[in-house]
Design a protein that fits this description.
globular; alpha+beta; 9-stranded antiparallel sheet
Length: 228
């Protein structure tokens, strides 16, 4: 009795006169490997995208204070003009950030003081309209705390600085519009190290800085702000 053999769908689809050769069978593993490699690259690309964020320029703010002739430490505020960050919760060493700070948008709570702080004797905002920070490494301390190491360029001078930070939360907003990564950070700067030396007897040298930062996960949208 003849044994019935099953016929593959691919064999039924072969045009008349087409026959598979042994060399074609040898090429199949290579094709499968190539397909697998493309799959790995796509997965890596998706993972990189999931760890990439753009700063929300509304909810990311920089607050600082500096001594005023021993009477008080008035507060000022700056905004991030643009920037991006990478944060890999599984491997902080793969994280980093780069951003620009708009010095012309300085807010000391009074228009005349804003203008005075931006004059050539202090920040010289016309010549140096932005400050720039670029990280070089991220050091993990525990599950929520770390130190950001990088270079701050301010007033035309670049200095290495360390910024301790805390990871507040990574998740969807209450409106469900974006995935957001939130951080709080602090730093202490010496203004004279950046060549900002005006009014040495009236304005302190040490500048305390607080950063509240939110990054929106990259997507096809060009909107870098969270809206209610």
């Amino acid at each position: 009795m003849a044994t019935q053999q099953s016929v593959s769908v691919s064999a039924l689809a072969e045009p008349p006169g087409f026959r598979q050769t042994p060399s074609m069978n040898l090429r199949r593993p290579a094709n499968l490997l190539l397909t697998s490699c493309f799959g790995c690259l796509a997965a890596q690309s998706a993972l990189a995208a999931s760890n990439s964020y753009r700063y929300d320029t509304v909810h990311s703010q920089i607050v600082f204070n500096i001594d005023h002739d021993g009477f008080s430490r008035p507060l000022g505020r700056l905004h991030i003009a643009q920037g991006s960050l990478r944060f890999d919760p599984d491997d902080w060493s793969k994280s980093g950030t780069e951003l620009d700070i708009d010095m012309r948008d300085l807010d000391m709570g009074d228009a005349r003081w804003n203008e005075a702080a931006c004059k050539t004797s202090l920040l010289d905002c016309k010549t140096y309209p932005t400050a720039h920070f670029a990280s070089t490494s991220v050091e993990r301390k525990d599950d929520t705390h770390g130190v950001l190491h990088g270079t701050l360029t301010l007033h035309g001078v670049s200095q290495l600085i360390d910024i301790p930070f805390r990871v507040n939360r990574i998740g969807k907003t209450i409106f469900g519009l974006h995935t957001v990564a939130g951080f709080s950070a602090t730093a202490m700067l010496d203004r004279t190290a950046f060549g900002i030396s005006g009014f040495p007897n009236a304005v302190g040298h040490g500048v305390a800085v607080w950063l509240e930062l939110e990054g929106i996960r990259d997507s096809s949208s060009d909107d870098n702000k969270e809206h209610p």
